[in-house]
UniProtKB/TrEMBL annotation:
Gene Ontology CC: one annotated term: membrane
Cross-referenced SUPFAM superfamilies: NAD(P)-binding Rossmann-fold domains (SSF51735)
Protein name, per record: Uncharacterized protein
Organism for this UniProt entry: Gossypium davidsonii (Davidson's cotton)
Family in the record: Belongs to the short-chain dehydrogenases/reductases (SDR) family.
Molecular function GO terms recorded: oxidoreductase activity
Length: 316
């Protein structure tokens, strides 16, 4: 066991233990922020089902956590793009635990092909990243394809929807009201969508439905294919990723309204240094996981239908 892992584990364990048996699923885990979320939940006494598409990497991540003394972590393969795979997970949870208390939807895709060598050669420091003054420079080393856009939306939004809807019967059996946490992004904020009509429709939570969200994404894909994103008011920086997260936030609000006995929130973890953003960010996975875990372990009666910027409630 590495010294850094040992010290992190000791730090997490000081945050308190759950007395009752609590069962959680975290998607998209084999390293990075997902691994840290599992570590922090398990260190609080939660039994965690670590899921990943790659069986080898998922088993390796689970073995590493077992070496850290976290025997309350189990692995199950999950491909969020495949309904049969999601149903297999649901069957496993039903047979082994009989319910689910926490779902953290962490699996995501960037929707971009990036020349990492050229990105590093730009020499953009963390302050510049945070200031958003380098968008044109960054765009020069990014390539967006229709195929990547489809995968991104299918992972970041439809994948979350697929997993959540399939596991809802088990989540509804949680005695104290389940927690659902969706990983979001700064790019999910409505103010970052140029088109006023798009912002207004996504912000009209009283009249928003999943059918409307699907319609918005289908229109986005049409404009993407027709090279009409700028003309019709869609985001240009990481367009598919941005729209997947904007719509995911809206879906989170719809779910919270539909299931008031649960705590359902979305969390921007901060600019975390992970593979997804090509290790250009400025905070550690430990720091990034903190807000997600806080929402997963939120006390009864806590906020629901909210967007958190790390650990603080923020505007959608």
């Amino acid at each position: 066991m590495a010294d850094s892992d040992s010290s992190r584990l000791a730090e997490i364990e000081n945050s308190g233990k759950y007395e009752a048996e609590t069962y959680a699923v975290v998607t998209g885990v084999n390293k990075g922020i997902g691994f840290e979320i599992v570590m922090q939940l398990a260190s609080n006494g939660v039994t965690v089902v670590l899921t990943a598409r790659n069986k080898v990497r998922g088993n390796e991540a689970t073995a590493k956590l077992h070496q850290l003394g976290l025997s309350n972590v189990v692995f199950h393969q999950l491909n969020v793009l495949d309904q049969a795979s999601v149903e297999s997970l649901a069957d496993f949870l039903s047979q082994k635990f009989g319910r689910l208390d926490i779902l953290v939807n962490n699996a995501e895709a960037s929707g971009a092909i990036v020349d990492e060598d050229e990105l590093k050669a730009l020499g953009i420091d963390s302050i510049a990243w945070l200031s958003r003054k380098v968008a044109k420079m960054v765009q020069s080393v990014m390539k967006y394809t229709y195929e990547e856009a489809e995968v991104c939306l299918n992972t970041n939004y439809y994948g979350v929807q697929r997993v959540t809807e399939t596991l809802l019967p088990l989540l509804q059996l949680s005695s104290s009201g389940a927690r659902i946490v969706n990983i979001s992004s700064l790019r999910s904020e409505l103010k970052r969508v140029p088109g006023e009509s798009i912002r207004n429709e996504l912000g009209d939570i009283k009249n928003l439905t999943e059918q409307k969200l699907d319609g918005i994404l289908q229109l986005f894909l049409k404009d993407f294919k027709d090279n009409a994103l700028e003309a019709n008011g869609w985001p240009l920086m990481l367009p598919a990723y941005s729209m997947s997260k904007v719509v995911l936030n809206a879906y989170t609000r719809i779910l919270a309204r539909k299931y008031p006995n649960m705590c359902i929130n979305c969390v921007h973890p901060g600019y975390v240094n992970t593979d997804l953003n090509w290790h250009t960010r400025v905070i550690t996975t430990e720091e990034g996981a903190r807000g997600l875990v806080k929402c997963a372990l939120i006390p009864d009666g806590g906020p629901t239908g909210c967007y958190f910027d790390q650990t603080e409630v923020a505007e959608f």
